[in-house]
Specification:
The complex is a heterodimer of chains A (353) and B (580). Chain A has 353 residues and is α+β, with helices and mostly antiparallel strands. Chain A contains 9 helices and 19 strands. Chain A has a 6-stranded mixed sheet with strand order 7-8-9-3-10-11, with helices on both faces. In chain A, strands 2-1-4-5-6 form a 5-stranded antiparallel sheet, with helices on one face. In chain A, strands 14-18-15-16-17 form a 5-stranded antiparallel sheet, with helices on one face. In chain A, helix 2 (97-107) crosses helix 3 (112-126) and helix 3 packs across helix 4 (141-154). In chain A, 43% of the residues are buried. With 580 residues, chain B is mainly α. Chain B has 24 helices and no strands. In chain B, helix 1 (2-50) packs across helix 12 and helix 5 packs across helix 7. Classes of the chains: A alpha+beta (353), B mainly alpha (580). At the A-B interface, strand 7 and helix 2 of A face helix 8 and helix 9 of B. The structure holds adenosine-5'-triphosphate and magnesium ion. The site of magnesium ion has 2 residues of chain A, from helix 1. Adenosine-5'-triphosphate is lined by residues 12, 15, 17, 37-43, 197 of chain A.
């Protein structure tokens, strides 16, 4: 079901943890909250679940107000039909996998046979069928993750909240499970809000991303929007722009000057991705050339660090096949005009959701 | 030149190593020997006595007169009756302690009750009153004829109802005064619990009450069961409470049965040993069952991002529950302490009317000190201090060396040290006391009849607590600190002295204070070992009470509880909670 947060405020004493937050999650879509540590992602999510009482604003799930400060509505968590996958998984260690997953169904007073059928279905979906009888403390991290997910799925939630559910897993499993999560979300048409620190996880899982900072949203859009057009320098660095230069600093830098010709943005920083940089071997000492100071192997390509004549350090990604460079070689550096973003350090105020 | 230097150094190093290994091995053998004499010989002598028809005396010990007759002889109705009584009492008091301790822990840790520090104090305070003092106080309060509460009831025209000389009385006293173990285990587990486990219940559709029943209670089971088992075993082997409260009404328990065999003349030590063996068997069986049950439930519930759990709002139940906590405090502390003080300071031991006594207000506070005018009592107090300090110093040293050998040296045979050190846990105090008596009558050292035998016996009894405290403190120390001192040229002894011991100051101090306090509290073991000149405070209180000198026993008890409470608070300051 659709979720909307309007003008949400959360205070802890004097500290304003969430400010004027507006967000909209259309039915059946996945929203990812992305942002630095302490920016209020968990707090926002917990207030949707009803585990945290906001100090202002309104939260609607479907057509129902679950929280409305003005009307003093605050539906308790067990009546919201909002489920949550916790970062610690919160699998009850004194219950078996089956009992964990059955819990929300028992709370709904389903008959024994309905519970069994539904648990079976969900465990099938998450690939945990053979562990049904296991005690929950006898599971690996990835398995606990799946149980937590199954438990949340079992209750057919209006919205499913996931707070950094993959952050305790190793890198390989993280990638595998996130693909699976996306599959389940899309197959079941789930409405989800997902919190992460990880840029690639956000891109892979989101229909929309909300980039948060200091309790507010600074940018909202599709993964493609955020990837290609970050609003400011901080958003750009979060989205993996490796080269970010102050314009003053790079005024002498011919790459940017060339790249920026004819563009009229008013940002004071120049940003571009390492993968958009082109290198050619050269012999002359023009201002747009420099020397390779390090080369590191990345699998499909190499990451080269180039020190420009004026001291600027540029990161470049070169396809492995194209690599003929050596450390110390002189190269000419260029970037396509279209790949360069000119951005302010921090955009003031937040964009509308 | 280099070669010469090299080989010279090598030789020196090798010598050093060899010398060092010899020293370590010698130390290990010594410790094993000491523990064998302290702990194993007494246990072996009990077994011998149970399987023999002669008592273990010098020259008596041979395998020729082994017989199962003694054991067969005691497996009669009377013994089995006592065993049954013991089990009923232990089961009842464990349930009672689990209920009261668990409820207090939940109220303290998970609700918005007011005055939390007081709730904590109420949960902990019964620990400051040793069970035998509590039994003494409650027999003053609730004996069927002249108990103060019964007298008060008569004053107020109510029927006399209370009789602590009964199963209910025993279960009540043991349950209340062992409840702090349950309280401490359970409340710390509740405080450490990951609040997300409860929140998960809420978001998955459960009401607050349902979450408490289905999630919180389930998570609480292991600490609750674990501490319940501890109370069960402590109650099962407790002698003095049974002696004070069960004996007057003719209820026998296994410990009182053993005591009576030992005190009959002629002494029937073989039968006592046989009953002791039965008691050890029950304790071992229970320990085994406990481990079987708890092993599958040994899960961690700690974790999460350190968020505070939301507290249960009590609403209208808040005041009645707080009243309940006050009632528990009054019953466990205020009533017995008042009874002791009243008895000690009132003009006569016989109190015909409580209201009358209170209205006369004829109290003599200095009566609390009166017993100390008698030289026997000052002698006993001095003995207590000497014994406690002696045990403190020697046991702390022995525990440190043992823990160090087990955890840091890891020579073959080290684990044996740990097994031996922990053995007394499974041996009831009354049984160990008997074994220690026989041991030191046989040993060619003239310690029987001196304070030295008390010190030796207490070290043996308290070895498990001391060893456990010391090894957990040593485990917290990073081994690399000591190793780096050795890499930089210090010998092992020197690096232990300069690095490890200074770093463990707090841990060592806490073991020392724990040993002091446990020695002060101990009554059962010295019962078999004391002589007129070597009485200690706990023995004097026991004797005075048994001889009917109630007022002097009460006065001494008040002082005694004061000392123990002070030591217990000191021990807790150093982070000790597992006081026995
Ligand atoms: N119970 C609380 N009391 C006071 N301050 C709090 C409380 N909970 C959160 N905060 C503060 O609110 C801010 C937002 O916290 P929140 O947990 O939502 O951050 P987050 O974005 O989830 O960070 P992370 O990525 O590290 O999980 C933080 O600055 C935090 O210190
Ligand atoms: Mg968070």
């Amino acid at each position: 079901m659709r979720v909307s947060l309007q003008d949400l405020q959360i205070h802890y004493g004097k500290f304003h943890a969430v400010k004027d937050l507006d967000l909209e999650v259309p039915d059946g879509t996945s929203l990812v909250l992305l942002g630095p540590s302490g920016c209020g992602k968990t707090t926002t999510m917990r207030s949707v679940a009803g585990l945290e009482a906001p100090t202002g604003g309104r939260i609607t799930v479907g057509e129902r107000d679950v929280f409305n400060f003005a009307e003093r509505t605050n539906v308790p968590p067990n009546k919201r039909n909002v489920s949550m996958v916790f970062q610690s998984y919160a699998i009850w260690p004194h219950k078996t996998v089956y009992e964990n997953v059955a819990f929300p169904l028992q709370m709904k007073k389903l008959s024994r046979s309905d519970v069994a059928r539904k648990v079976g279905e969900v465990l099938e979906l998450t690939g945990m069928s053979q562990y049904e009888k296991r005690g929950a403390s006898e599971l690996s991290g990835g398995q606990m993750q799946r149980v937590a997910l199954s438990r949340s799925l079992a209750m057919d939630p209006a919205v499913m909240l996931l707070d950094e559910p993959l952050s305790n897993l190793d890198a390989l499993l993280r990638v595998r499970l996130r693909t699976e999560l996306r599959r389940i979300q899309q197959e079941q048409g789930l409405t989800t809000i997902y919190v992460t620190h990880d840029q690639s996880e956000a891109l892979a899982l989101a229909d929309n991303i909300a980039m948060m900072r200091a309790g507010g949203v600074v940018q909202y859009g599709t993964p493609k929007d955020l990837y290609q057009n970050p609003v400011d320098v901080e958003a750009a660095s979060f989205m993996g722009y490796q080269n970010i230069f102050s314009r003053d600093d790079s005024s002498a830098c011919v790459i940017s000057a060339r790249g920026l010709n004819g563009r009229s943005d008013s940002g004071d920083h120049v940003c571009f991705r390492a993968s958009h940089v082109k290198l050619e071997a050269t012999n002359d000492d023009s201002a747009d050339s420099g020397s390779v100071t390090s080369l590191s192997y990345q699998g499909d390509n190499f990451l080269a660090t180039v020190e420009m004549a004026n001291g600027l350090i540029v990161q470049c990604e070169i396809p492995q096949a194209a690599l003929t460079l050596q450390r110390g070689d002189k190269v000419r550096v260029s970037v396509d005009e279209g790949s360069i973003r000119q951005l302010p350090v921090q955009k003031l105020g937040s964009t509308d959701a | 030149m280099r070669e010469v230097l090299g080989s010279y150094q090598y030789k020196n190093w090798g010598q050093l190593m060899r010398k060092f290994f010899n020293a370590a091995t010698a130390l290990q053998v010594t410790v094993l020997g000491v523990l064998f004499v302290l702990i194993c010989i007494p246990v072996l002598l009990i077994i011998f006595a149970a399987l023999s028809d002669v008592l273990p005396r010098p020259g008596n010990i041979s395998l020729t007169n082994l017989t199962f007759e003694t054991i067969g002889g005691i497996l009669s109705g009377a013994t089995l009756g006592a065993a049954q009584n013991s089990l009923i009492i232990a089961f009842g008091s464990a349930l009672f302690a689990m209920f009261t301790g668990g409820a207090l822990a939940f109220i303290f840790a998970r609700t918005d009750i007011k005055w939390k520090p007081f709730v904590y104090l109420a949960g902990l305070a019964p620990m400051f009153i040793p069970a035998f003092v509590a039994a003494l106080a409650w027999s003053i309060l609730g004996n069927p004829r002249s108990g103060l509460l019964n007298v008060l009831a008569r004053d107020l025209g109510l029927p006399e109802v209370l009789n602590v000389y009964s199963f209910a009385g025993l279960i009540f006293v043991l349950g209340v005064y062992y409840a702090p173990y349950v309280f401490l285990f359970t409340s710390s587990a509740l405080l450490l619990m990951n609040p997300e486990l409860e929140e998960a219940g809420r978001v998955h559709g459960a009401k607050q009450g349902t979450v408490i029943r289905r999630v919180t209670m389930g998570l609480m089971t292991p600490p609750l069961l674990g501490s319940g088992f501890l109370v069960f075993i402590l109650s099962l082997e407790n002698f003095p409470v049974a002696q004070f409260l069960a004996n007057p009404s003719g209820i026998n328990t296994l410990p009182t049965y053993i005591y009576r065999f030992m005190n009959s003349s002629p002494q029937r030590g073989n039968e006592a040993a046989a009953v002791a063996l039965l008691l050890i068997g029950v304790v071992l069986l229970l320990t085994y069952i406990q481990q079987r049950i708890l092993r599958r439930r040994n899960y961690t519930i700690v974790g999460g991002k350190g968020a505070r759990a939301s507290l249960v709002r009590l609403g209208r139940a808040r005041t009645p529950l707080f009243a309940g906590v006050i009632a528990f405090f009054v019953v466990s502390i205020v009533l017995p302490m008042s009874a002791l003080i009243l008895t000690a300071t009132s003009p006569s031991a016989f109190i015909p009317s409580v209201t009358g006594l209170l209205s006369q207000a004829d109290f003599n506070i200095s009566a609390l000190w009166a017993p100390f005018e008698r030289p026997q009592v000052t002698q006993a107090a001095t003995n207590s201090v000497i014994v406690s300090v002696g045990v403190g110093v020697l046991a702390t040293a022995l525990c440190f060396i043992s823990a160090y050998l087990v955890l840091r040296m890891r020579q073959p045979g080290s684990p044996l040290i740990e097994y031996m050190a922990m053995t007394p846990l499974a041996i009831p105090a009354i049984v160990l006391g008997m074994g220690l008596l026989w041991t030191w009558l046989i040993m060619p050292l003239p310690v029987y009849g001196t304070l030295a035998i008390m010190v030796i016996a207490f070290i043996a009894v308290q070895m498990p607590q001391g060893y456990r405290g010391m090894s957990s403190s040593l485990l917290q120390q990073n081994t690399e600190l000591e190793e780096s001192a050795m890499m930089h040229g210090a010998t092992r002894v020197k690096s232990v002295r300069k690095i490890t011991i200074p770093l463990m100051k707090e841990g060592i101090a806490s073991v020392f204070i724990l040993m002091l306090m446990l020695s002060m509290r101990e009554l059962t073991v010295p019962l078999f070992l004391y002589t007129t000149d070597t009485r200690i405070l706990s023995i004097v209180i026991f004797d005075e009470y048994e001889n009917g000198a109630i007022r002097s026993a009460s006065a001494l008890s008040v002082i005694y509880v004061g000392i123990i409470a002070a030591l217990a608070l000191l021990a807790r300051r150093f982070g000790f909670s597992n006081l026995r």
